[in-house]
Amino acid sequence: MTSVPRVLAAFDELLREAAPDRRGALWQLAEQGRELDANLVRLPPGGAVGAHQEDVLDVLLVVVAGDGRIEAGDAPLELTPGTVAWLPRTSRRALAAGPDGLAYLTVHRRRPGLTIQPPASAPAVPAPVRAPSYEGGEAPCMLDLVCPGCGRLSRDPEPVFCSRCGERFAEG
User: Fold this and answer.
1) Which of 21, 22, 68, 118 could disulfide-link 97, Cβ–Cβ 3.0 to 4.6 Å?
2) For the segment 79-125, what is each residue's pLDDT rounded down to a tens digit?
């Protein structure tokens, strides 16, 4: 089967129809088999995404509406409609919306799924002599690492803001 291009969203309609105080991801790319992730994110007037660092992915940020700034390094980078900013992986940055709020599209390579792997120096575990009849127990709870806005699992052990949608995590 051949894939065909198609329209997925009309951002002006999404922004117009969303509640004025709605913050976070208004739209997410969710197509099967995609190699990209994209999110339309809105911050209300004066809203902010606190300082954070994305260690795995470069992110392209395109301002769709409103204005604001990226705090990174010595001088803030001003954001206005049509501005395209590159947020290289490992860069530390924060976003702040102006008096009219800020709506922006983020685009990046699709994040690999999370996997649990033993540390490189983990000792070999010998097989039990007799298999136990019950191998129970609960996995560690990671709900405090799940973004309340978009559901993304944070790789940061103590997240403050989601690096995908900007939503603030509950304080622990």
Assistant:
1) 68
2) 999 999 999 999 999 999 999 999 999 999 987 665 555 555 555 55
Q: Say if residues 163 and 58 touch (Cβ distance below 8 Å).
A: no
120-171 pLDDT per residue, tens: 555 555 545 544 444 444 445 667 778 877 777 877 777 777 777 777 777 7
Six-digit token string for 163: 């690096």
Q: Show the tokens assigned to 72.
A: 């990174």
Beta bridge partners of 92: 53
